Amino acid sequence: MQLQFLGTGAGQPSKARNVSSLVLKLLDEINEIWMFDCGEGTQNRILETTIRPRKIRKIFITHLHGDHIFGLPGFYPLDHFKLMKSKQILKYMDRSVLKVLS
Questions:
Q1: Which of 28, 67, 79, 94 is catalytic?
Q2: Number of structural domains, the chain?
């Protein structure tokens, strides 16, 4: 199990610190990655790491502030469109997030 911070900034992304997002790598345990929050630019941060987007199986959103959700649409081009459209990957968040994304 490994925890990797993708962003720890608040409100505005910067070159040094992206907005809120972190991943819990459970690759040895269950071969999955879980993401907590998905602020703007998270998809770019992921592409700068060794994280494979297809391994992200669950996304947990703590609350509906933009700095925690504006990165979700960026996952559409990263082959998560089918998962997000089926809402399987997003089932661990407040249902109001799904309304925002619809």
A1: 67
A2: 1
6-40: per-residue pLDDT in tens? Answer: 988 877 667 778 889 999 999 999 999 999 999 98
Rounded to an integer, what distance in angstroms lies between the CA atom of residue 23 and that of residue 8? 12
Domain containing residue 53: 2-101
Higher pLDDT, 56 or 4: 4
Q: Is the pTM of this model over 0.85?
A: no
Q: Where are the beta strands (DSSP E) in the chain?
A: 2-7, 21-26, 32-36, 56-60
The CATH number given to whatever domain includes residue 14 is 3.60.15.10
Annotation says 67 is catalytic: yes
